[in-house]
Design goal:
This protein is of the alpha/beta class. Helix content is 45%, strand content 11%. The chain has four domains: 68 residues, no CATH class; 237 residues, P-loop containing nucleotide triphosphate hydrolases (Rossmann fold, 3-Layer(aba) Sandwich); 162 residues, Cytidine Deaminase, domain 2; 44 residues.
Length: 573
């Protein structure tokens, strides 16, 4: 009986489109003959595990039934700063899916806003370019304020529901995500059927694209400033219900760099295939759809996963950051996270047997508050006191509180030097130094863009290249050290190599956006949790016959919730 219950165990693979009746069990003699044939031909076992029993046959095969019920639904979101080309990425994703024989519904955030507030949207679109930026953002902010910060995602879900009800494809591509609450809602509804692509692009390229898009003259200083302000509000508006793209970006499952422009999304195949981003998007789709089960992490992906693991060791009250140093041969040199240092070397939490000692110096136990935030607040109060002493009218207590809030959101609120924690990059560098390991020519992988304090130490340590995932808007690293730091550019040569070759001229450390699978994607993408070879012959199974688990949820589990959200969204009009 136990054999019957487990007949469709981890080694089986069920046809997810058709539930076929079983042919019954083989006799012992026929099984022996089949095994002998497999030794000769290498043909894998197939039919007995791909077929489902008819009701009443006495065979349970519950696991196979659950697998067969897993949905083919797939929802892909795209997130990126304005001007990064999220719409192009979304269109190319749909094109690549069609090339692979799978269609996808296009869901656009702009369509959601236009349907929810048609008059306001039309009025905003009629504004001149320099005023249109803020007007369009204001429409979204108002709708979030009147509903909740996930309002646009609710509209996307309503669009997906309507498309499926009309017989549309099970795959949808959402362009574009602009708030972390939108990611939270889509993940809450679709679970592991939702995937998020993060699009990065250097700031100068984004600025130039927006100037061209709105027909603004390159030498128009007022227009250039307006576009720059627009870009800043897009990344983090500073308003509770405004756009927060930088925060949403950290939840991406895969990252691509669109700094290289594609002439148009419907460019000929030869042009599309030559675009560097295409290979990255094809890799993403292969991971998502498990088309290539033996696809393994790249060196950069493996390094960033180590950085992510180091990040989890941080108990910082503000954010967790992880870093890893890789030598020129790809060997791991040191890891680091942002945590409070302890006497004797290292950080709290490292190599301590006494649980009480592990937590003693960490901020949550040592006072229970963030010293950096506390010092910034004291600085703001000090500024207000100085203004009052000079006779500057600050108004009543309500006005003073409002001014204090604005000061905290100003560059005063960007100060980071009062933190008790060693930053992750510095922890990695100091850890290497304690062990006498040279960092010259090494590469640094860090989960967040380095602050300007860490950046100068990275340069001084002889690091060739830095790869990062999350942006850090407070950092002035590029502005303060553009003589020794650069973003990716053609012809860049690692400083250590340039010195060995005796190349004249200034050299720069390259700060490069990370491209590839995000650490959060690793288990879903790279865990080999099924058979890839025939158990008898040892031969590699063809991809369609490899019994990898499909972790997508049961579509029935979220269809009811999807319908309810769609109904509520329809009631907002």
């Amino acid at each position: 009986m136990w054999r019957l219950l487990c007949a469709s165990g981890p080694r089986s693979r069920v046809d997810h489109t058709v539930l076929r009746p079983t042919l019954g069990c083989r006799s012992r003699a026929s099984s022996r003959a089949a095994r002998q044939a497999r030794r000769v031909t290498g043909r894998p076992r197939l039919a007995q595990h791909r077929r489902m029993p008819k009701p009443g046959t006495g065979r349970v095969e519950a696991l196979a039934l659950a697998r067969a019920a897993q949905g083919a639904d797939l929802v892909i979101g795209v997130v990126g700063a304005v001007g990064s080309g999220t719409s192009t990425i979304a269109r190319v994703l749909r094109r690549l899916l069609r090339r692979a024989g799978a269609d996808a519904t296009a869901i656009r955030a702009s369509d959601v806003l236009a349907r929810a507030a048609p008059l306001d949207w039309a009025a905003a679109m009629a504004e001149p370019p320099l005023r249109r930026f803020g007007a369009l953002q204001a429409v979204g902010s108002r709708l979030r304020h009147e509903n909740d910060n996930a309002f646009v995602a609710a509209g996307m879900i309503a669009g997906i529901h309507a498309a499926r009800a009309a017989g549309g494809p099970p795959i949808a591509v959402c362009d574009a995500i602009r708030h972390p609450a939108e990611v939270q809602l889509l993940r809450s509804v679709y679970g592991e059927a939702f995937w998020l692509v993060g699009v990065v692009c250097d700031e100068a390229t984004r600025h130039a694209r927006l100037m061209r898009k709105y027909g603004l003259a390159p030498d128009d200083a007022d227009a250039a400033r307006a576009v720059q302000d627009f870009m800043g509000r897009d990344e983090n508006s500073g308003v509770e219900h405004g756009q927060k793209v930088a925060e949403a970006f950290r939840y991406a499952d895969f990252h691509c760099d669109s700094s290289a422009s594609l002439p148009q999304a419907d460019a000929p195949d030869a042009v599309l295939d030559a675009w560097p981003v295409t290979a990255d998007l094809e890799r993403f789709l292969a991971l998502v759809r498990t088309e290539k089960p033996m696809l393994r992490p790249t060196e950069a992906e493996q390094a960033m996963y180590h950085a992510y693991a180091a990040r989890l060791g941080s108990a910082c009250l503000s954010r967790q950051v992880g870093a890893v140093l890789l030598g020129q041969d790809g060997q791991l040199l040191a890891t680091g996270c942002n945590e409070v240092p302890r006497a004797g070397g290292g950080l709290y939490g490292e190599g301590m047997d006494d649980p009480a000692e592990v937590e003693r110096g960490r901020c949550h136990a040592y006072g229970g508050f963030c010293r950096n935030t506390d010092e910034r607040n004291k600085l703001v109060d000090h500024v207000l006191d100085l203004l009052a002493e000079e006779g500057v009218a600050l108004g009543d207590e309500t006005a003073r509180t409002a001014l204090a809030r604005r000061l905290r959101r100003s560059r005063l609120g960007h100060l980071v030097e009062f933190s008790r924690s060693v930053h992750a990059e510095m922890d990695a560098l100091v850890s290497a130094a304690r062990r006498g390991v040279s960092t010259v020519g090494a590469r640094l992988f860090v989960t967040t863009f380095p602050c300007h304090n860490c950046a100068r130490h990275i340069v001084a340590a002889g690091i060739d290249e830095v790869q990062f995932i999350e942006p850090y808007l407070k950092s002035k690293a590029l502005a303060l050290h553009d003589d020794s730091i650069t973003l990716p550019q053609a012809g860049w040569v690692p400083p250590s190599l340039a010195r060995r070759l005796g190349r004249p001229g200034p050299q720069r450390v390259c700060f490069r956006p990370y491209v590839g699978a995000a650490p959060r994607l690793f288990r879903r993408a790279f865990l080999k949790d099924g058979e890839v070879k025939d158990g008898m012959s040892g031969r590699l199974l063809p991809a369609p016959e490899q019994a990898f688990e499909n972790r997508r949820p049961l579509s029935e589990g979220y269809r009811a919730l999807e319908a309810e959200i769609a109904a509520r969204f329809a009631g907002t009009g």
